UniProtKB/TrEMBL annotation:
Record-given protein name: GST C-terminal domain-containing protein
Residues noted as binding glutathione in the record, renumbered to the chain: W61, R94, V95, T96, V97, E112, S113
Residues marked Lowers pKa of active site Cys (site): Y227, Y276
Species annotation: Polyplosphaeria fusca
Annotated GST C-terminal domain residues: 143-276
Lineage: Eukaryota, Fungi, Dikarya, Ascomycota, Pezizomycotina
Active site: C28, Y166
Family matches, as SUPFAM superfamilies: GST C-terminal domain-like, Thioredoxin-like
GO-annotated cellular components: cytoplasm
Gene3D superfamilies xrefs: 1.20.1050.10, Glutaredoxin
GO molecular function, one term: glutathione transferase activity
PROSITE patterns documented for this protein: GST_CTER (PS50405)
Length: 297
């Protein structure tokens, strides 16, 4: 459960340019959704991005200079943990990314990716050109008439797919693994059937990309390469067993047109399997396949 759950705009956290910083790591699927939202909304000049490197076994996320800067550009610190301690010296929860930081109040706005995504969709609109504001768009990321449907799909996709791959990969008993893997693949089957409906093509809710696509994408783009091999989600592969999901995934990934704001899905997908190999298997051995990692359309 994420601990910091404030919203922008609100009394203490108004929408302001050059005030907030998003700390992320490109490997992390939860951070990836916030990066896609940031890019699709054109927030480059409004919310600063800082990447933290993979977990140091002793200190967690850190500023290594290999991936992201050598030191945090705001405070010069070395570890994301220090930001959590600055926000709350008593903090003893998990140190996770993504993290939305407020430079003015020197505190964490939120460490819950689903809520950061929603803030990025609408929270900064008054600072953006008119045509980028959700109310003015022909294709808002959460159209009002689809809101309940999107929430419903997000709900089971979160539980059984986004979080599901972690439940499988980190299961501590055979029973827990069996339960999570059954739910994961029945949800993938359900998504494959969902895409068979002409109202759900080419994207999950029709002609335009919505939040539901973004949230599913960041898990499925890692599926064959990372979750199938390293997290033991190995009943079926997207590329071999789910033709509609595979088309949907590759369309999002390879598109460079206006629907993807010039290709944000590909541009933001950047993750080495070695990061996951360390976390899941503990020995850092990277599986060779499948190759290529992402098939052409
Ligand atoms: N609920 C959080 C989860 C974020 C999360 O679990 N991030 C992982 C990286 S993929 C993390 O930072 N893990 C570090 C840890 O648990 O120590 C969100 O969606 O923002």
């Amino acid at each position: 459960m994420s601990r910091f759950r404030n919203f922008i705009p609100s009394e203490h956290f108004p929408a302001e340019a050059d005030r907030y910083v998003l700390y992320y790591n490109a490997c992390c699927p939860w951070a990836h959704r916030t990066i896609i939202a940031h890019a699709m909304k054109g927030l480059g000049e409004v919310v600063q991005l800082v990447e933290a490197d993979a977990r140091d076994p002793a200190h967690g996320w850190w500023f290594s200079g290999r991936r992201g800067p050598e030191r945090d550009p705001i405070y010069g610190i070395k570890y994301v943990r220090d930001l959590y301690m600055r926000a709350d010296p008593q903090y003893n929860g998990r140190v996770t990314v993504p993290l939305l930081w407020d430079k003015k109040n020197q505190t964490i706005v939120s460490n819950e990716s689903s809520e950061i995504v929603r803030m990025f969709f609408e929270g900064f609109d008054q600072l953006l050109p008119l045509e980028m504001r959700e109310v003015n768009k022909l294709n808002p990321l959460i159209p009002q008439y689809l809101r309940a449907d999107i929430d419903e799909v997000n709900g089971w996709v979160y539980d059984t797919v986004n979080n599901g791959v972690y439940k499988v990969g980190f299961a501590r008993s055979q029973a827990a693994y069996d339960d999570a893997i059954t739910k994961l693949f029945s949800s993938l089957d359900r998504l494959e059937a969902h895409l068979a409906d002409p109202r759900h093509q080419p994207y999950l809710f029709g002609e335009h990309i919505t939040e539901a696509d973004i949230r599913l994408f960041t898990t499925l783009i890692r599926f064959d390469m990372v979750y199938y091999t390293l997290f033991k989600c190995n009943v079926k592969m997207i590329r071999l067993d789910y033709p509609r999901l595979h088309d949907w995934l590759r369309r999002l990934y390879w598109d460079e047109g206006p629907e993807t704001s010039g290709g944000v899905f590909k541009l933001t997908t950047n993750f080495p399997a070695s990061g996951y190999a360390q976390v899941s298997a503990g020995n850092g051995i990277v599986p060779a396949g499948p190759l290529p990692h992402i098939l052409p359309l």
